[in-house]
Design a protein that fits this description.
- By secondary structure, this protein is an alpha/beta fold.
- The protein is built from eight helices and seven strands.
- The strands form two sheets. It has a five-stranded parallel sheet, sandwiched between helices. It has a two-stranded antiparallel sheet with strand order 6-7.
- Strand 4, helix 5 and strand 5 form a beta-alpha-beta unit.
- Helix 2 packs parallel to helix 4.
- It is globular.
- The relative contact order is 0.22.
């Protein structure tokens, strides 16, 4: 059973990381579609190919509390050959940069190729250490592989973006959100 992403009494969602294709801010991207499917106001801080280092610097744009912060990070870094220790350290800095007691932080676990499991272990360890809601890799993997609409390992086409937005919308606890507004 995938985890619910508790909204914590907010109507604000920040999405930080790689856009997973189609470029930033377009109406057809999964963060924009997620806004259409929920009652959340989404601040889309994604950009194509955004590495962890750049995402670390962009954490300053996550300003409102309470809020939900959804991290979609690390895939491009892995493709570029970053080592696991650096991956874990940079991911830690991003989590610390967005974490606040009044924020819920959630992270998409990356579907990995064989012999990349150490990156997944790093994500799971950080999620546990910082109380981050880890969205199981099967969610993104299902979208990537079942939609049949992807350009490469971590880039979705329009059908994939819609499928990811729908999958994530199901995880947001809309009842909790509606009751808190």
């Amino acid at each position: 059973v995938p985890p619910d992403i508790p909204a914590g009494g907010t109507d604000r969602l920040y999405v930080l990381g790689d856009s997973l294709g189609l470029g930033p801010g377009g109406r057809g991207t999964w963060p924009r579609l997620l806004e259409d499917l929920t009652s959340l106001k989404v601040s889309d801080l994604t950009e194509p190919g955004q590495p962890l280092m750049r995402a670390r610097r962009r954490t300053v744009f996550v300003q409102e509390s309470p809020s939900v912060v959804l991290l979609s990070l690390g895939g491009c870094d892995i493709v570029d050959g970053i080592d696991v220790e650096q991956f874990e350290n940079l991911m830690r800095y991003v989590i610390i940069g967005v974490g606040r007691p009044t924020r819920t932080v959630a992270m998409l676990e990356l579907p990995l190729r064989p012999f990349q499991n150490q990156y997944g272990a790093a994500q799971r360890s950080l999620a546990q250490e910082f109380g981050v809601v880890l969205i199981p890799r099967r969610i993104l993997a299902r979208v990537m592989y079942e939609s049949g609409d992807r350009f490469d390992q971590y880039e979705l086409g329009p059908i994939g973006h819609r499928a990811l937005a729908e999958a994530l919308a199901e995880l947001l606890d809309e009842q909790e959100l509606a009751g808190s507004l």
